[in-house]
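Everyone, carefully examine this protein record:
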Amino acid sequence: MPFVRVRDLDVYHEVHGTGERVLLISGTGGDLRANPRRGHGVLERRFEVLMYDQRGLGQTSKPDRPYTMADYADDAAVLMDALGWARAHVVGISFGGMVAQHLAVRHPERVDRLVLACTSSGGDGGASFDLLSVADLPRDERLAITLPIMDTRNDVSTDPPAYAPMFDVIAPFMAAPPLNADDPDAAMGARRQLEARAGHDTWDALVRIDHPTFVVGGRYDAQAPPANLERLAGRLPDARLQLFDGGHLFLLQDATAWHAVADFLAGEAG
């Protein structure tokens, strides 16, 4: 099984594709098993992509103690060490974009090009929607709040609900029990991630991230809204911003998005 020891964790990871190396950092609640198409995406067809379950999630260890954003960033750096990766392009999605910011601040020598997708800096740059504030609600009540935040075109007040593109497929999946519902530590690990996420703030440190950076997001995203992305891109020394036709899941909703990310990583755009 593809586990490797990272600090005090057994980290589940996969490597797909060939080419320049890319570290892909997933979002809140990320579990590789939830993506049956992994290994066949745009990035994996052009790069060697390392993806993994972060601490507390998926098949990776779930220690029951407070997690910090520094923990997540250091986990990523030590995972690269364990696999012999000195440097890589880094793509962080949502919460993964927060981790990527901390990684670039704490371990700048490990990062080549940087992609920050549907994420926020926190602090004066604005925070993404506080998912911890709804974590204890029943699943249906939580979805009634979060679906319109994930894409402002979602309207769950109608019968049947009106969904933005792709959400008609995604919403039932979101309403189902998590893949690791039979893991007694899964809920604890997921909450530990949300608690760490609530403390995310890189605003003051962003000026030290001088890597070429592509800030991307969806026009209809209220979880990491365009205004946050604009402030994030404006604060970084070498960044450009592009918005796509979607919400928080714009990478699934707009077929051009992953291609734009891949072109940036290859130095073919911007």
